[in-house]
Amino acid sequence: MSKQLEVHGSFDRLRIRERGQSVRYLVVDVIAPELDNAKSKRPPLNVAMVIDASGSMGGPPLVTTKKAVDSVCKGLRDGDVLSVVSFAEDVRVHVDAVELRGNRRDALDAIEAIQSRGLTDLAGGWLKGAECVAKAMEKRSNLHNHVVLLSDGHANKGIVEPLILEGHADELRKRHVYTSTVGIGNGYSSTQLEALAEFGGGRMHDAESPDEIFEVVVGELSELSRCVTDNVELILTFPVGCKVNNVSRFPMVVEQNKVRVSLGSLAPSQKKTTVFRVTAPSGNIGARLDFQAGASAVVAGKGTVTSEVSSAVLSYAAEHHNSTQPRLVDVATTVARVWQASVVRRAVEINRIGDFAKLQSYLDHEILYLARYCEGLANARSFLNELVKLRDVADRDWDERSRKDIQMSTYQSLHGYKDFRTTQRGHWTSKLPSDD
Question: Which of 140, 147, 229, 336 could bond to 266 as cystine, CB 3.0-4.6 Å?
């Protein structure tokens, strides 16, 4: 494997009509470098574990969460930095940017002393955890900085608006403080926790039961130890006049004829795929539209690195050449998979707010266009059939656990993330209510 950050871009079809309005799909893969002895080369971790200690966490959830954070403390190496913060109606710092050495007893005792209490100032706890991480960053410049937030509820004190949380998470990410989240049980806010993880450059996890809290926290620590490529940003430059939409729903900023897509952190050799829907302007037969994709990332031991630029080209051709051109089957199948996963995630969001008429209309529209796209793609028919199953129950109020399982399945598929839970969920369609 190459030890460089790689980018590869391909269109599903290569020709476009001279009259304009041809729609083509661009698939861009970003692949993290595979570093030799990545584990031994990783920078020291600077981790803040931020624990929801509100009243609803009392009992097994908090007990298991504390055991998981204990395991994090014991699993960190000498020289790593640990902070532990709890939040309810107030915010308390229990371990404040402590550089760990042989004796960790004080940190373990402080974790054990955490008790449940009151409301849920999620943002206050999260920002305090980031403050602890920043304190350690001021003393040492070679740290991998991360906040891991665990919550079983909706923020009901302090900042609660997802758009504001996104903005703060994005600013922290730009300062190399990354955020991952763990949702516990069925009552947590998927919208709030996903906003923090998506814009914070980390991962979102789901822990349905107390036992799974331990599994995902330990799994996240293991992933942090492996992730030496952070703050991955895909930059796509496209010709003037083209319209570009991000099918994959990753956080994106548009700058005239350029888009920047935040892909978070990657483990060695991990790949993330972004799909863009491109609408071409009119042009002359024989002319070309050149799309250039590159990426930048912060790599342990190297600082900010950039990839070589990958070029993907569309060419204007006569009508008969357009209508008879083949598709690149592998690329088109990837488009159908990502398209479907994005639709399913959006469907869950609409079902959660109870607007069943909007959900039915949305699915009717997407199924119509995805059906046209899947014609001739034998490997992609299953994606369409699954959406039809979803449409059959679009007039029902799905239970929240089903929504979370469906959402997490498609989230992991889009991001290429591993599920650390040992209990198998089955395919997301098995979580849909009966259509009887």
Answer: 229
